[in-house]
Amino acid sequence: MTTHTFPKQAVAARVDLPEQHADAHAEDSPRPMLELLDGVKVTVDVLLGRTTMNIQDMMTMQSGGVLELDRSIGDPVDIALNGKTIATGEIVAVDGRFGVRIVSVGTADR
C-alpha cells in the first residue's frame, strides 16, 4: 500500500454545493443528444454460439474441421453492441446473405 504525505500547510475546507434533484431537468428532451449521435456508426455482433477447447486441440485445427457450438439450430442468437447483449434474434436469409430477425430487445435478464 502506498502512503501519501501532504505538506503541513494543506488545509481541508468544507464546500457547500447546490442541491440537485433527479427530476431537475425532466422537462429537457433527450432528443438534442440523440440528434448528435445520428451519424455515429457502431459495430453490432451476432453471437451464434460458443464452445470451449483446450489449447492443444486449437493448435491442431485444420481446414474442414468442425466446432460444435452450445446452441441448437433454431435457438435464438444474441445481438451485442460493444460486447453487451442488447437483443436476441433468429437467423434468416436475406438475398443470399445472413440476416437476423429481432425477437426481443432489452429483456429483463440483460
Automatic annotation (TrEMBL):
Q: Where is the composition biased (Basic and acidic residues)?
A: 16-30
GO CC terms on record?
Answer: bacterial-type flagellum basal body; plasma membrane
For this UniProt record, the keywords arranged alphabetically read as follows: Cell membrane, Cell projection, Chemotaxis, Cilium, Flagellar rotation, Flagellum, Membrane
Q: Which Pfam families match?
A: FliMN_C (PF01052)
Membrane disposition: Peripheral membrane protein
Q: What family is this protein classified in? A: Belongs to the FliN/MopA/SpaO family.
Protein name according to UniProt: Flagellar motor switch protein FliN
Which taxonomic lineage is given here? Bacteria, Pseudomonadati, Pseudomonadota, Betaproteobacteria, Burkholderiales
